[in-house]
Amino acid sequence: MTEEIKQETKEEEKKETPETKPSNNAKPQPKEKKDKIKEQIAKLEEQLKDQHNEYLKVYAEMENTKKRLKEESIKDRKYASQKVVGELIGPIDMLVKIVSSKAPSPEIENYLIGFKMIANQLVDILKSEGLTEIEALNKEFDPNLMQAVSVEENNNLADNIVVKVMQTGYMYKDRVLRPAMVTVNKNNKKKEGK
Fold this sequence. Notes:
The protein is an alpha+beta fold and 194 residues long. It has three domains: 2-13 and 30-77, no CATH class; 82-129; 132-194, Nucleotide Exchange Factor Grpe, Chain A, domain 2, CATH 2.30.22. The longest helix is centred in the first third of the chain and has 50 residues, at 29-78. A hairpin with a 2-residue loop joins strand 4 and strand 5 (175-178). The protein has five helices and six strands; from the N terminus they run H-H-H-H-E-E-E-E-E-E-H. Helix 1 packs antiparallel against helix 2 and helix 3 (82-100) packs antiparallel against helix 4.
């Protein structure tokens, strides 16, 4: 539409030759008309520019929303079974401890063998879902993965080494599901040297 108006004004300017130009005595209506048309063209061009900028903003916002939703969807699928795995850890831990204990009679020993097989299958299923055990024993204490429950003093071991795991900790993919409950060594050689 703006191109048509521009073309019309150019054609009108071409038609005006020295013979057809209005004299000074005539009314300057065509010039005023041209000025109005030029103003309208400028307004329309400004509106078009504003509309285009608005379109680009909305388009960019929509693309960002698409990316964010896609990332959230991937994250939701990745951690979909986290809640179930987290709730199963406690009972399976108890089952593993029970089947690891010594049976008081041969009859119960047979039951424990069967339960041990079931416990191993459950642990394998959870591992296939992304569950991993936090290895803490004889490692340096890491507050991001472990929770110190008590402290022992042993000068034969280095400072901040885990000497006992009271409860196994677990990671689900790259998240800590349950921190390991540990006993940490505090070396008193430094205090004795002073």
